[in-house]
């Protein structure tokens, strides 16, 4: 009934060509086909945010997309965060480390990929705005205080230009108005 | 937690999509952003034989204003509409409603038309479109028709679209000059489905209410307009008493479905409170404009 389809998906600059069922979730493609297990799968219905990846620069739930839909789009997962940083952590990862923004770490990749595109603007944000940005990701270990602190630290450091800037992220969509 | 088997179609044009729906409509689901449909598939609450994905159909994502009327392509991402300066300046109620839709990651993928066609009475966009008196353009091989919001939403997750039809455009008439808006909802956590809410538009004439609109969220199996409460406000000064009385009238006969998060009585009181707040906000904004 459901025929296999050939797909070619670009993840972190690399092209993955596979034959998959159309019902294969993008999250499962990333983990099982591309072998990139940094992206975690929590609730698998769009609530927890653990599987968040960037699609053309915009954070999205990879459990709410089919792999076949990602063809022609550019994906970025947590593995790409510190690319080109010579083994050092991305400023956001470094801040999570220093502020104890994680305990078990299961939710962390989703948080990182959700937060990263907003870091350049987050330096001027108050706690409410930061928490609103974080609201789409659940952490069951620790509450969110240290995650808020991590965001603040990373955003401040980036705005002072102390650390490497992360790659430009594209707008979610183009408008014809 | 994995979707059931289905035949996947990703048409490259609207005609091809309409042809697929004409052949498979009864056994097909249209996939737009997938932020409601994919969870239903993952839970296997939906088991369509065919999925018709509109993701590669060109020409369905746009935001235009002509002769004062807003036209939104059904596949426009919610995040795109949320940051539209055009919408923010002429239909700020819509911008405010969008900020309450789930989370940024969902809005980055979710579409305006998808939310409308999903017809969840606890969703913000259908309620905002009810308050704005929007109409929906639907297409099939049989032609195009325009359906007003009252005839569009039939019941929980059900619209008056036929199985071979697809939503292509949302048409929003201009908001009355000088109108103030309010959109209030209450959810247990930010971004969750709201337990109750209300949208309001108020226009003032000197110090009196010229016209008011009130739409209720999660109050029934479709978005509702509280027409009697709207009428009760006409000609009144926007006092706390008048607003409280209108809110009381707005929920007469309303019996929201209760669940573990709040029973019918609780939600009834909640929606009344949300109407009060939305009207107050709209009234204040209307007087700032004047």
Architecture overview:
The complex is a heterodimer of chains A (177) and B (290). Chain A has 177 residues and is α+β, with helices and mostly antiparallel strands. In chain A, 29% of the residues lie in helices and 14% in strands. Chain A has 6 helices and 5 strands, in the order ββαβββααααα. Residues 165-177 of chain A have low confidence and may be disordered. Chain B is of the alpha+beta class and 290 residues long. In chain B, helix 10 (227-233) packs antiparallel against helix 11. The longest helix of chain B is centred in the C-terminal third of the chain and has 26 residues, at 264-289. Chain B is globular and about 60 Å long. At the A-B interface, strand 4 and helix 5 of A face helix 2, strand 4 and helix 6 of B.
Reading the helices and strands of chain B in chain order gives: EHEHEEEHHHHHHEEHEEEEEEEHHH
How do the strands line up in the largest sheet of chain A?
Answer: 2-1-5-3-4
Class from helix and strand fractions of chain B: alpha+beta
Q: Helix tally of chain A?
A: 6
Largest interface: A-B, 36 and 41 residues
Strand content of the residues of chain A, in percent?
A: 5-15%
Number of strands of chain B: 14
Largest sheet geometry of chain B: 5 strands, antiparallel
Categorize the overall geometry of chain B.
Answer: globular
Task: Give the low-pLDDT segments of chain B.
Answer: none
The average pLDDT of chain A is 91
End-to-end separation of chain B: 54 Å
Compute the gyration radius of chain B: what is it? 19 Å
Kindly state the mean pLDDT of chain B as a whole number? 97
State the total count of DSSP E strands of chain A: 5
Rg from Cα of chain A: 16 Å
Helix content of chain A: 25-40%
- Beta fraction of the residues of chain B? 25-35%
- Give me the number of helical elements of chain B: 12
Pick out its properties.
heterodimer, A: 177 residues, alpha+beta, 5-stranded mixed beta sheet, 5 strands, globular, B: 290 residues
